[in-house]
Design goal:
By secondary structure, the chain is an all-alpha fold. The chain folds into 3 domains: about 1-150, Serine Threonine Protein Phosphatase 5, Tetratricopeptide repeat (Alpha Horseshoe), CATH 1.25.40.10; about 255-325, Serine Threonine Protein Phosphatase 5, Tetratricopeptide repeat (Alpha Horseshoe); about 335-415, Up-down Bundle (Methane Monooxygenase Hydroxylase, Chain G, domain 1), CATH 1.20.58. The chain has helices at about 35-55, 60-80, 80-100, 105-125, 130-150, 150-170, 175-195, 200-215, 220-240, 240-260, 265-285, 290-305, 310-330, 335-350, 355-375, 380-400, 400-415, and strands spanning about 5-10, 20. It has a two-stranded antiparallel ribbon with strand order 1-2. Helix 4 (about 105-125) runs antiparallel to helix 5 (about 130-150), helix 5 (about 130-150) runs antiparallel to helix 6 (about 150-170) and helix 13 (about 310-330) runs antiparallel to helix 14 (about 335-350). The chain is elongated, with a radius of gyration of 26 Å.
């Protein structure tokens, strides 16, 4: 049976921000291009075969044909081949509508899924009115299914309501968005009383609601839902640390950053430290978490730096730099921007504490990275390169190294 695609907002790793992320409809694991091509060829072959069989026995083979067409549409959508994906989704919808007329109990749910898939495609391609039209049709049909069998379809209703709330938020229809976010949470609470399996979705939906209130500048409500999301993630991590500790660490970091922006420094410090302790535990079995660990160390160091607690700031900046070097050794081409930011932070600390030799060293390391990035993409990295050049130039001016100061000023002027 097809599944509703989940559209959620996900907390990013090292700053308080949210981004849309839609889960895959299919469990097709295609990490390499050759795998995608293999799956696509196989699916096309199956569509051709089943289409012929459906001509002679439509009731037996049209459901299978619709499923294959949906699979291929999802592959094309993930490849941003949106026109081809749209054509296929529309064909699957027409097949399932035909089947649902004859066998509504069996195929009405498939029509709901098809409409949701189309709505997601239109949302992804900024055809928001068309997305809304299909979401509303899908929702009306799903509500009828829920009336008949709530235990079967309430979880899907929660997901669909969340999808629509995200759309309304994007359209600036904030009253409708709030209504649907809150209805989503009401269903989630009911589901979680019956089955703990829904906790993960509940945490995501709480996070989405918090993000909505952030955009509305309703900080008290935002904090309320973030804390609820954090509590759910704590429970998930207790039950299954291996699967959910990463999410908890990220959530703690983001909550800490929120407190930092509100000048609640003690709460921020406590949550950063908790996130870092979890990071250390994760790293015992998973070295890929080093990037998150580095970001969290840097965030705590920033908090101490802003509070003029330079001793602790240095401690965590140095830990950040060490983790960054370990990452570079294993993956030298990634995270250049983050590493440059961390090195510049350490250089600023040494400049502020009049340890000029170390400051110069780290500014030079930062410049090496930004000069390289600037060559690859001048428009994107001009401002960052200019800032670090100016930082080092100010250091040279303070040390009366006028010739080096003038050289950097000329380089800055050349970037204007």
């Amino acid at each position: 049976m097809k599944r509703i695609i989940i559209l959620v907002f996900a907390l990013f790793l090292n700053f308080f921000a949210f981004a849309q992320e839609n889960a895959e409809l299919l469990k097709v694991k295609v990490k390499e291009k050759k795998d995608v091509e293999k799956v696509e060829k196989l699916t096309l072959k199956n569509i051709e075969k089943v289409r012929k069989l459906a001509e002679n026995d439509p009731d037996a083979y049209l459901p299978e044909l619709s499923a294959y067409i949906n699979n291929l549409a999802t592959i094309y959508s993930n490849q941003e081949r949106f026109q081809e994906a749209e054509t296929l989704y529309l064909e699957a919808l027409e097949i399932d509508k035909t089947l649902a007329k004859k066998y509504p109990k069996t195929f009405e749910y498939d029509v709901v899924i098809d409409m949701n898939n189309l709505a997601l495609l239109y949302q992804k391609t900024f055809r928001l009115q068309e997305a809304e039209n299909y979401y509303v049709q899908s929702l009306n049909r799903l509500r009828k299914l829920v009336e008949k069998s709530p235990e079967t379809f309430e979880a899907d209703l929660s997901v669909l309501l969340n999808n629509i709330a995200v759309l309304y938020q994007n359209e600036g229809k904030y009253e409708q968005a709030e209504e649907y976010y809150l209805e989503t949470l009401k269903i989630d609470k009911h589901l979680n009383k019956q089955n703990n399996a829904y906790k993960e979705e509940y945490a995501k939906h709480l996070n989405n609601t918090a993000q909505f209130y952030q955009l509305q500048h309703q900080d008290n409500k935002m904090e309320k839902y973030l804390l609820e999301s954090l509590e759910v993630r704590r429970n998930l991590a207790k039950e299954n640390p291996q699967e959910f500790e990463k999410d908890l660490s990220i959530c703690l970091n983001n909550m800490a950053y929120y407190y930092e922006t509100k000048k609640k420094k003690k709460q921020a410090e406590d949550l950063y430290l908790e996130a870092i302790e979890i990071d250390k535990h994760i790293l015992e079995n998973d070295n890929t978490h080093k990037k998150d660990y580095s970001a969290h160390l840097n965030n705590l160091a920033n908090l101490y730096f802003e509070d003029k607690n330079y001793e602790k700031a240095e401690q965590f900046y140095l830990q950040t730099a060490e983790i960054d070097r370990q990452i570079q050794e294993s993956e030298p081409t990634i995270l250049k921007t983050s590493i440059a930011i961390h090195l510049n932070n350490l250089a600023n600390l040494y400049a502020n504490t009049e340890r000029y030799e170390q400051a110069e060293q780290f500014y030079e390391e930062t410049l090496t990275i930004y000069r390289s990035l600037y060559k690859e993409n001048p428009k994107q990295y001009k401002d960052e390169l200019t800032t670090v050049l100016d930082n080092l130039a100010r250091l040279y001016k303070r040390l009366n190294r006028n010739e080096e100061f003038e050289t950097l000023k000329q380089e800055i002027q050349s970037l204007q």
